[in-house]
Amino acid sequence: MDNISYYSNAATKRAVSRVRYPCPLPTSNPSVYGGTQGGRVRNHGGNKYSPLLVGGGELLHKKKLRAIFSFVIFLCMGFGNLLAKDLSDKEYIIGPEDVLEIQVWDNEDLGCVTEVSLEGAFTFPLIGRVRAGGLSITGLERLIEEKLADGYLISPHVNVSVKEYKSQKVSILGAVKNPGSYALKRKTDILEVISQAGGFTDKAGQIITIVRPKPTQQNGHITHSGKEKENAIITLDLSDFKASSAYDNFPVMNGDSIYVNLAPRIFVTGEVKKAGEFPWEKGLTVRQAISLAGGHTDKASPRRVIISRMEDGKEKELKPKMDDLVIPGDIIKIPGRYF
Predict the structure, then answer these.
(1) In terms of Cα–Cα distance, which of 291, 289, 292, 298 is closest to 271?
(2) CATH code of the domain made up of 169-262
(3) Start and end residues for every CATH 3.30.1950.10 domain found in the chain
(4) Which of 178, 217, 241, 301 has its CA 20 to 30 A from that of 112?
(5) pLDDT, tens digit, for every residue of 155-204?
């Protein structure tokens, strides 16, 4: 460059114009940015005078951002589910025989585990008798905080949790794997209760019957009158669950007796491969009923099928077509051929 400066101005301009000023690579490995070609850095869409973050480098950067974003969403969803569950637990209505664990922050000596009496109350240190029946967990926390703040503690913070749920129960019977009594720990829908009972058996039908006693208020807690005439009878159809999810969020209530009915049955006899009793479903036709029995034998006369059906307490014989519907209790007879 020192020799070039002795030339004329025109020559100097020509020499300087031949000097290249490529952007220096921030790494000693140019292949990270697409490699080199003929002494030049290959450009995959970026400015030739700026660091090339296009190509492999930018793709890697995008993948990292996408992975981080997905992880953050996953954490948020998990936290949201835990928060929703915790809020749901706080809505639980306390009743007799529930066992509560009560903690007062920075005052461990006040913490205790207590059982709510049949009158819906319990005794707590310093403040004495506390009526909890009919209150939510959140409501009880606020009540204890107010009583402690009245001359005992400064800005107390109380946390209440249920160790044993005893006051709110439902009974589930019928075609479930584990019939029995189940505690309601929060607002619970019908499908969740059935799941707690182990789910349906193979013989479960589509009809669920719920007997719901009329609620009454006693000692701040909802009880039941015990009079059968005042009970409400609710019938749910499982086919509605499958079709429109109309009852997916159907809530059960304290004292409900839930009965999962057995599936209605039909009977197929005569010239079929597997005569016997079969479950009935809505829309079942004569042809489908015969198919459930393995189909007719070679000796059968399908055109002479007979259905025995009870109507008004009397048994009647019908001559149906193959696409006619059958109803629960039907006896389908497939006679043999004469020749």
Answers:
(1) 298
(2) 3.10.560.10
(3) 99-164
(4) 217
(5) 999 999 999 998 889 999 999 999 999 998 878 889 899 999 999 998 89
